[in-house]
Write a structure and sequence with these properties.
The complex is a heterodimer of chains A (about 140) and B (about 450). Chain A is an alpha+beta fold and about 140 residues long. Chain A has 2 helices and 10 strands; from the N terminus they run H-E-E-H-E-E-E-E-E-E-E-E. The N terminus of chain A is likely disordered. Classes of the chains: A alpha+beta (about 140), B alpha+beta (about 450).
């Protein structure tokens, strides 16, 4: 958001701000055209993407990956990491994979998917900021 | 013990202001940010920033546990709450105390007492501060009518837990008092979760004056003169001045004495503001409330006294006494501040967040700008829309108005609409120049014509 900043990062910041706006205002869709940039955001049930009509003939089909997708579990707010399950651990959706602490209260972090923990990104005792990567789970292929 | 590392639990211009004040005192700073403020000016200037949570204030700036956890874990021994957000919530200093962090503000019990308008009124009365004729809490519509008849109409029904004009209703007769009771009570429940109401005499043409206070927590309290904040829209201040040029000296002295007596009676610690209604016709002032924090408009008091109030706040929180005595505080000249919001005044003050594409503020002697904005900066849509405060200091009120007019004319902002053109129109109005304004002047006199002209 600063002058002279990488325009790609600035664009992502803008997109994030727009997405937050859409979610907090309960709108169905949002279409912004600014200079040579155009962004369309919609909820399920929102109207069709007006940009897509023009883009369809050239659309490229992205192949589905063979391996299960990796899901990143990140810190839900600033917190200190107490413990996390080790890489290689098999987990099922809803299972506690990590425990964080805010002041003296502990909070369990649940696995959003079933799979195998493939990476742990933080060490116990570390202060995690909001959105900081905690661990990654490879879903079942 | 002096503070070594200060946690800044706020955003926008005041976060930057606090960081700069701490840096001037050689104190390290850690700034709390939400996801939307990762690249804010305060975050860039501070030694460190910590992302508390997502953009929504309820999950970031308004969560005291997250704030105190981040402060403690980043090794901070002091915490400045700024204004707004949690600045007047006693839970924040209580948590700070539990975790060995010095809170830059009053004791939590004092915040609680002053935050309850009925208790604050009782404290003011006990300290001999003039009160607007009013009631204890009113329990029913019939009570409201009886109290209204006794006080004399028009009367104001106010929420005990209230602020910012919410839960406030004017009644001109007994029927309106009964109807107003139901309306104000419902609004108060919705806004504050507490429907307790009280009533007071409504002064149709009042000025808003307030006294800047600073206490050491041991009963010593200084004042830094008064401010006049009568240019308001929906109880929100737009322009603030210091001193109040409409108040005669003998009343000004009484005003300062009242404010100091009230603060001293509770051994007030750190910065606070006692707010009063000034009934120009009756030449009387009445206590409204105490704001237990630094206020948005503190720079006009700094301009006319030459003291840095935020630095003084930080020193006091670190255990130092007051750095000056009352006779060192001399008032010089006149200062005016305008709050610049990213709002479209011609479209009912529609908030207009977005990206600033051009930002060229005026410079020169007697001009100060407190702002976190720059060309390319983003105004997120999640918080208030203030982009900065333009403050001018002149020899006298007329000189300050002339400087402010020049400063606004030389202020270039593009990318979002701002309230600068409105400020220019206000200070060019004969009523403002001749200082005949009151708290409803803007809405009654200037805005109706302004909207039409702009459209």
């Amino acid at each position: 958001m600063t002058a002279g900043k990488n325009p790609a990062i600035a664009a992502i910041d803008d997109a994030r701000a727009l997405l937050d706006t859409l979610l907090t205002h309960g709108w169905q869709q949002l279409h912004v055209v600014s200079g040579d940039t155009e962004i369309f955001l919609a909820r399920d049930g929102g109207c069709a993407n007006p940009m897509r009509v023009a883009a369809l003939p050239d659309a490229v089909v992205i192949p589905t990956p063979q391996a299960g997708p990796e899901t990143l579990v990140s810190a839900p707010h600033v917190a200190t990491l107490e413990q996390a399950l080790a890489a290689g651990t098999q987990v099922t959706v809803g299972q506690t994979v990590a425990t964080v602490r805010v002041l003296d209260e502990q909070e369990d972090i649940a696995a959003p998917v079933s799979g195998t923990i493939v990476r742990v990104d933080a060490a116990p005792g570390a202060l995690l900021e909001y959105g900081a990567p905690l661990l990654s789970i490879a879903g079942l292929a | 013990m002096p503070i070594n590392r200060l946690f800044v639990a706020n955003r926008g211009e005041i976060a930057l202001r606090i960081v700069r004040a701490a840096q001037a005192l050689n104190i390290e700073t850690v700034v709390a940010v939400s996801d939307a403020d990762r690249d804010s000016a305060a975050a860039r200037v501070a030694d460190r920033s910590i992302v508390l949570g997502p953009a929504a204030a309820a999950k970031s700036y308004l969560d005291p546990r997250l704030i105190v956890h981040a402060a403690r874990e980043s090794g901070c021994d002091g915490l400045h709450p700024g204004y707004g957000f949690l600045s007047e919530r006693a839970i924040l200093p209580r948590l700070c105390a539990q975790h060995g962090i010095a809170f830059v503000g009053p004791e939590p019990d004092v915040i609680d007492a002053l935050g309850d308008k009925l208790r604050a009124r009782a404290m003011a009365g006990a300290a001999g501060v003039p009160l607007v004729p009013g009631s204890e809490c009113v329990a029913s519509a019939a009570d409201a009518r009886r109290e209204g008849d006794r006080i004399g109409y028009p009367v104001l029904l106010k929420a005990s837990a209230g602020g910012g004009g919410r839960g406030m209703v004017i009644a001109h007769n007994g029927d309106e008092a009964e109807a107003g009771f139901h309306k104000a009570s419902a609004e108060a429940v919705a806004a504050f979760g507490d429907g307790t109401l009280f009533m007071e005499r409504f002064v149709p043409e009042a000025r808003h004056v307030e006294v800047q206070l600073m206490g050491d927590g041991r009963g010593n309290v200084l004042h830094f003169g008064e401010r006049d904040c009568s240019v308001q829209r929906r109880y929100q201040k737009l322009i603030e001045e210091a001193p109040c040029a409409a108040m005669p000296d003998h009343l000004r002295r009484q005003l300062h004495e009242s404010a100091v007596a009230l603060a001293a009676s509770v051994h007030y610690r750190n910065a606070g503001t006692a707010e009063f209604l000034f009934d120009v016709q009756r030449q009387e002032f009445y206590f409204i409330e105490v704001n237990a924090r630094i206020q948005v408009e503190h720079p006009v008091s700094e301009a006319i006294t030459g003291f840095d109030l935020v630095q003084e706040q930080i020193r006091i929180a670190g255990g130092a006494g007051l750095s000056v005595s009352q006779q060192d505080v001399e008032i010089s000249g006149h200062a005016i501040e305008c709050r610049i919001n990213a709002e479209d005044a011609a479209r009912d003050f529609l908030p207009s967040p977005g990206r600033i594409t051009r930002w060229e503020p005026p410079q020169g002697q007697g001009i100060r700008l407190d702002s976190h904005m720059s060309a390319g900066a983003m105004i997120p849509p999640f918080y208030d829309s203030m982009v900065g405060k333009l403050i001018v200091h002149g020899r006298d009120r007329a000189d300050a108005i002339a400087r402010l007019a020049d400063a606004i004319d030389n202020f270039v902002v593009e990318g979002v609409p701002t309230t600068l053109p409105l400020h220019r129109a206000i200070i060019a109005h004969p009523d403002f120049i001749e200082n005949r304004i009151h708290t409803r002047w803007l809405e009654q006199t200037l805005l109706p014509g302004y909207g039409k002209k702009a459209a």
